[in-house]
Design goal:
The protein has helices at residues 19-33, 47-55, 70-83, 93-105, 124-130, 144-152, 181-184, 206-219, 234-243, 259-263, 280-287, 318-329, 332-345, 351-368; strands spanning 7-11, 38-42, 59-61, 85-90, 110-115, 136-141, 160-162, 192-197, 223-228, 250-252, 268-271, 292-295, 310-313. 41% of the residues lie in helices and 17% in strands.
Length: 369
């Protein structure tokens, strides 16, 4: 049977929009454009629902209350049976459980889970009944770092497959630099901007970046820091910046839509995480030719190669992070070298490759079934 006729439903249980939703959206949109029989199941009034409405991509909004929402699983099973869907691609942790309930009611379904974070599994329920469930055909890990963690947690290696998260490496090609950005934020044209794009959540480790920024600012007068993102820890981090007396040179700009035009104002991109699945904001930064300083954790070393397209420093080490920032800020030739290598290296993470690898996985599962 032609693979495009095999129905594929994507399930995302989140209301907000972050990196995981963007990755699922890339895949869904590309499959739909290529003529696949596919649709999304998501929460009512979610950002993903709004995305599908804008793009005119088929979706069904079903309230999914929790991992034990058997009724949601039953309704999804009905849709699959009635509309001839065979594969459930489960893009969030709660979606895995919903998918297992759906399989209970419609045994022909093939389940693909996705693991986007390099956290260890919290409990035996996750280990035994979600990720090692005999009905789960594959678990897609978005980096080898995540795959390693899953294996350490006892997940069956035969179920695990690495498919890197991808980006549209050309999406910012025609985006112009925001020429008002520096003046609007009282940043001199001669200042070096060290920027990040990350949600204000624990594993992104903003305290590490703020402590490093303090060390840098004490030694260098021409460096400014910019953070794009929002999240529950944002106010707390602003308070920390005040305590460290760096608020005048550390700019919290919140969530922004015009990421590309702002990235093109950055001089250096930094990702200070203590845990990170891969970091697609790193890839976005590389696509516009930014040198990157990242921490040596999770999937980051698969995107940032030390002394090739950036620097890797130990996680939770603000002194080493500050040293790397200062070193790169003082060496324009090195920044240019890293920038050139970044634009070349990021090509391996083009979304077209990600889509192709997922289609190959679908074909493999259908052949096995």
């Amino acid at each position: 049977m032609e693979i495009k006729k095999i129905g594929i439903i994507h399930i995302d249980t989140e209301v907000s929009w972050r990196g995981g939703q963007q990755q699922a959206a890339y895949l869904l949109e590309n499959l739909y454009k290529q003529g696949f029989h596919t649709q999304l199941i998501c929460q009512p009034q979610s950002e993903f629902a709004k995305f599908c409405e804008r793009k005119e991509i088929p979706f069904t909004a079903i309230k999914m209350h929790s991992e034990i929402d058997i009724w949601a699983g039953f309704k999804i099973a009905q849709i699959c049976r009635q509309q001839n869907y065979r594969i459930l691609h489960l893009h969030s942790a709660h979606a895995l459980s919903i998918g297992i309930w759906a399989k209970l009611f419609y045994r022909k379904l093939l389940l693909i889970g996705v693991r986007r974070v390099d956290f260890h599994l919290k409990n035996n329920f996750s280990r035994k009944y979600k990720y090692n469930n005999r009905w789960m055909s594959r678990i897609v890990c978005i980096s080898n770092g995540i795959k390693k963690v899953m294996m350490e947690d006892g997940v069956d290696q035969e179920k695990l497959v690495t498919i890197y998260s991808g980006i549209d490496i050309h999406k910012f090609d025609d985006v112009k630099r925001d020429k008002q950005f520096r003046s609007q934020n009282n940043i001199s044209e001669n200042d070096i901007i060290v920027g990040t794009v990350a949600a204000f959540v624990g594993h992104k480790d903003y305290p590490n970046l703020l402590q490093a920024a303090k060390l840098v600012i004490e030694k260098k007068s021409n460096i400014r820091f910019v953070a794009l993102g929002d999240g529950k820890l944002e106010d707390e981090m602003k308070e920390l910046a005040d305590k460290l007396n760096i608020s005048e040179k550390f700019h919290f700009l919140g969530f922004r839509q015009n990421i590309g035009s702002i990235l093109k104002n950055f001089t250096i991109f930094v990702m200070p995480s203590k845990l990170e699945g891969l970091g697609t904001s790193i890839l976005d930064a590389q696509s516009v030719g930014l040198p990157v300083i990242g921490t040596n954790t999770g999937g980051i070393p698969e995107a940032v190669k030390n002394d090739l397209n950036g620097f890797l420093v130990p996680p939770e080490n603000s002194q080493e992070l500050a040293k790397a920032i200062i070193k790169l800020s003082e060496d324009e030739n090195l920044r240019q070298k890293f920038a050139k290598e970044a634009k070349e290296y990021v090509k391996k993470f083009d979304i077209s490759t990600t889509v192709k690898k997922n289609i190959e996985l679908y074909e493999e599962l259908i052949c096995e079934s």
